[in-house]
Amino acid sequence: MAATPVSPAKRKQILRVIFVSLLLDLISFTFILPLFPKLLEFYRNLEAPNDSSSILNRVLAGLNAYKQSFSRPISDRYDIVLLGGALGSLFSFLQAIASPIIGTLSDRYGRRTALLWSMSGNIASVALWVAATDFRTFLASRVVGGLSEGNVQLATAMAADISDDKQRGATMALVGVCFSIAFTFGPALGAALANIETLVANPFATAAGFSLFLIVVETIYLYYFLPETLPASRARPATNGSILKTEDEQRGVVRTNSHTLLNFTHFIFILFFSGMEFSLPFMTYDLFAYSSAQTGKLLGYMGLIASILQGSVTRRLHPLRVVQLGVVTCAASFFMLGQLKSETGLWVAATLLAITTATVVTGLNSLSSFEAAESERGGKLGNHRSWGQAGRSCGPLMFCTLYWWAGRDVAYAIGGAGMLGVCTIVLGGLKAPPKSIPR
Taking a C-beta distance cutoff of 8 angstroms, is the pair 234, 378 a contact? Predict the structure, then answer.
């Protein structure tokens, strides 16, 4: 808990700023998700016939060599999907590098300062997308974005700063609600804006421009309305260059769950879960000939269910129970997807995955924040996010390799077995921190 308790009115005001800014940020972030296939196809058609030595053509050549190594052929239809997956993995890898640094800087110089610098990088990233008339510029925008995006982890740290032990779980669920709302409506809005062409050299400039507008508005809003949530004694270095310690921290921090265990749990869960997420478009097309619009409807349904659960169930349950519920439903969905025979089964599995989306990461973030002292919260949460992003950078490639080498049944069976391993860790290894239990 913060050194000086935050008044209810002040806490409500800060939570409102966190919610609005994070929602703007995530809606802007999700604009690009449904555009990836057409966007990458545009750059491929633009550059492929003209310059065999371009960055895009070298990347495509490597992906095709990888694709041809499979025991059964992968349709050319998936060239763009694989390229999008490669870019997603790159973004997550860069986030894994940047997150601990951003978190540690927020512990030293304050959340507000770190967030405003992060927003400067986000503005530069989206501005590059607006100007991206070639793949090289677009790639640069993703690199800058991957290295500068810190909004989610800093919002989580700020929410923890202003919450006492009883409020922590419900406050963390607020961050999850932002995710669910953004992923339900952001992609649809991005797809609609992509139909409005304002720049021939970059047909996606309208969506990119509106995304930039949202990021700029968010930055101005944060600058004027977000106060520093880190207590003053923690936000400045001591005269000898070290960070000042609170009385509780000088006595030492007693942890119920080590951060190593929490971070490993986050990594292994995201490793399997993100691989399954990325394989869904492959599977729905192979089994039911789903179009992109039909797959988008399925994902939108999952986002809607997750947002309802975040606001009604997740915020009321203990964080450990939230994680336990999510990993069990995830394991069940893996085995269901491996034996899928009907669309009804697909939607039932999607409902289970929506429960997972609404619970696991939110619960793990809460547990991680309980185990972090005031002076290290930003860094610990940054490390926690880094491990998750490392899993997300590896999961799609590993799972899709397994999917195409061994087949759907084997891939999802192995994924389910891996998730049962996660269940073992969560159910048998993680404990409820004493201060998280209502008295």
Answer: no
pLDDT in the model for residue 68: 76
One-character DSSP codes across 329-352: HHHHHHHHHHT--SHHHHHHHHHH
DSSP β-bridge partners for residue 107: none
Residue environment code for 101-134, b if the CB has 16+ CB neighbours within 10 A, otherwise e: ebbbbbbbbbbbebbebbbebbbebbbbbbbbeb
Q: CB of 372 within 8 A of CB of 381?
A: yes
Cβ density class 36-69: b for 16+ within 10 Å, e for less? beebbebbbebbeeeeeebebbebbeebeeebee
3-state secondary structure of 71: coil
Rounded CA-CA distance 97/133 in Å is: 28
Cα 363 to Cα 90, 199, 228, 301, 305, distances in angstroms: 26, 44, 25, 22, 17
Residue with tokens 């989580």: 156
Distance CA 243, CA 108 (A): 7
- The string of pLDDT tens digits covering residues 344-384 is 999 999 999 999 999 999 999 999 998 988 888 899 999 99
